[in-house]
Amino acid sequence: MASSPPSSPYSGWQLTSDLDEFHSRAGAFLRSAPALHTALLSVTDMLRTRGLHVYGESDPLFGIRTGGDGARGPREASVSGAFLWTPPHFLALSPLADEAVADELAGVLADAGLEPAGVGAESATAAAFAAAWERRTKADAAVSFPQRLYRLGTLTPPDPAPEGSARVATDADRALLARWHGEFHEAIGEKAGMDAGEWADARISYGGATLWEAPDGTPVAMAGNTRQVAGQVRVAPVYTPAHLRGRGYAGAVTTAVSRAALAAGAAEVLLFTDVGNPTSNELYQRLGFRPVRDFTQYSFTR
User: Fold this and answer.
1) What is the per-residue pLDDT for 134?
2) Phi, psi of 145 (to 5 degrees)
3) 124 Cβ contact partners less than 8 Å away, ≥ 6 residues apart
4) Per residue in 254-265, pLDDT tens?
5) Model pTM?
6) Which residues of 18-54 are buried (b: 16+ CB within 10 A; e: fewer)?
7) How buried is 186 (Cβ within 10 angstroms: 0-12 exposed, 13-18 middle, 19+ buried)?
């Protein structure tokens, strides 16, 4: 594995390319607030189960911020922030205490000559880091995807439910899953984090994709779900082909995935929506999902 860039001696941030080190040192911190850290938890889990290069050819980079209380060394101090970066994708960053901590991180990465394509985090943290990155690198930061994180309260299935039934996708559905994965990302205008075939293989491996089928057995919608990590499962993505929308399939398949997660012992069922899509936000609220926090992705260009 490639060596890690040096960390700044004037900062609480330490960088590493060692996944095991990141997991051992930051794991408890991430699990302490699983909803707010859902992206970092699920990506870390995917790296551990599918390999370090599942998101691309470049080695991932991880960062840990410790409190540095003076009585203990940086490795022993309590963790107060974390990030992971799987180039060429955006930096995924935990919520940070204030703008100064975000500025610290921007300085460490800029001094190391690193150039992430963007950042994704809860909105205040993302805005603080984006502003710091602009100041330090003269790059332009622009909002690329505003999101809202929801947590399931009381599940309220659609009534009436559409005809048909749910089933977990199998190897026989690989081509369909890969195609719908690509169509989903094309529809939302977001670059996929993984190759479509690799995504399908990963989800099939643990039963992480569910199809809603019409009574004649034709698949009409899908919902993916992450593996359960720290008691949380995130529903992602939910997709219905354009010509089949408006018939209740998305609500039905989301309900099926959510029920399965709860039955498997998940303490939290989560999902992200596009803030600018009133249809999806209204749907998930009808199903019983409640807003937790807004998140924002910023892209960086020079």
Assistant:
1) 98
2) -160, 100
3) 95
4) 999 999 999 999
5) 0.92
6) ebeebeebbbebbeeebbbbbbbbbbbbbbeebeeeb
7) exposed
